[in-house]
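Course assignment 3, question 2. Fill in each field.
Student: A.L.
Task: Predict the tertiary structure for the chain below.
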Amino acid sequence: MSQEKVGTFPYTRGIHPTMYQGRLWTMRQYAGFGDARQTNERFRYLLAQGQTGLSVAFDLPTQMGYDSDHPMAQGEVGKVGVAVATVDDMATLLDTLPLDRVSTSMTINATASTLLAFYVAVAARRGVAPTALRGTIQNDVLKEYIARGTYIYPPRASMRLITDIFAWSRTEAPNFNTISISGYHIREAGATAAQELAFTLADGIAYVDAAIAAGLEVDSFAPQLSFFFNAHNDFLEEVAKFRAARRLWASIMRDRFGAKNPKSWMLRFHTQTAGSTLTAAEPDNNVVRVALQALAAVMGGTQSLHTNGRDEALALPSAESARLALRTQQVIAYESGVAAYPDPFGGSYVVEELTDRLEASATSLIAEIDRIGGMVEAIERGFPQREIQDAAYATQVAIDRGTQVVVGVNRFAEGGSEKGRQGQRIDPAWEREQVARLRSFRAGRDAVAVSERLDRLSQGAAGKENLMPLILGAVENLATLGEIADTLRAVFGTYRENVVV
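Answer field:
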């Protein structure tokens, strides 16, 4: 059993000696729907309710690099997140929000460089330097190939964009986390806890390898790496998973990559409760699920947390559900007493054994990925995809047979109690208004200057220079998200997934 102190290598028990005694985790509720104005109103509402950080959900066209008036975007604008096609959209999204004081997380991957450029450009309009900005871009494209699907370019071109952000941010935006290496979507696709842990850290290894190959020194970018995990239903296993993740990453960074800075060894992570566990049947049961999952994240030492709304299996969460989800965190933080104790489960025979077991299972999977040739090669061969598919199938079989109980679904089911629930509804008029604003934006700019900047970006993409300054230059000259993505598509091509059977 580990005798290590909290806040010391390998950080099994937490990255800070006092953990939440000095500062609570960031309560960062994920939000985004409709257009920028509606989402800004939700942000301000949540901040007024006590939220301590922002987290932006973008719609599928924004994630896939399409402007809101593109034929591929029709019917999807504002549906699963906010539509942001221009720097003016970003300005509206962030209206009145104190960018030099609030931390903003953006769940964006294939178009992360453009959204970061929008954010930086809006801050500059307000006199806030990039060095003063705090937050995170997800920027984790590898998990998109594995589990989620919002990729654009082939993996190696995507890795170049990511490492360009690393290099640019270390001097221009040193307080911004340049990536949130995400196990969340891997787990949502059906992975086990051990697979979530292994595949996430293997993605992290691939990003570090790519950055070093691009000429970066490991300690120059590693402190800006962060992670994003799922908090699932098995309470003790989840607590152990977070502890094992810290221990594994600390050893990987120190022993595998030779990092010298202790901040490079520390695995800092955001957690979201498990959307895939929420049920449309008897949705009030989801309140209990979310509370237990959130408590596991806190007991496991998360740095920030999003709690899902009870009605998310039916629709985007209403303002009432979003408030209740935030209140869940606040009750844990201020009423439960658990924040007074760093690593309360440290020394528990059960949790220590589970931590060791998960570490061993994840280590074995990472070794298999190494034998294949690394995570990029493993993705191209379909290895993690097959592993997740097999795990997801086994889980569904267990649920169908009733050997894995889902309360209110396959046992203790009353049925029909979801009737009358009203989640957040998207008004079709919002898409029409967003398209009209976008076309007006294009009509009011200097088209020659936009064309010149996009040509310059194309030249840079065909060569080897860092693309972040070129993307920022295009944004400052009012290029749209879709125009920037199309410019890069023309150079890099697009990725087509190999079917895994």
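Instructor remarks: The mean pLDDT is 95. The CA atoms of residues 406 and 412 lie 9 Å apart.
Grade: pending
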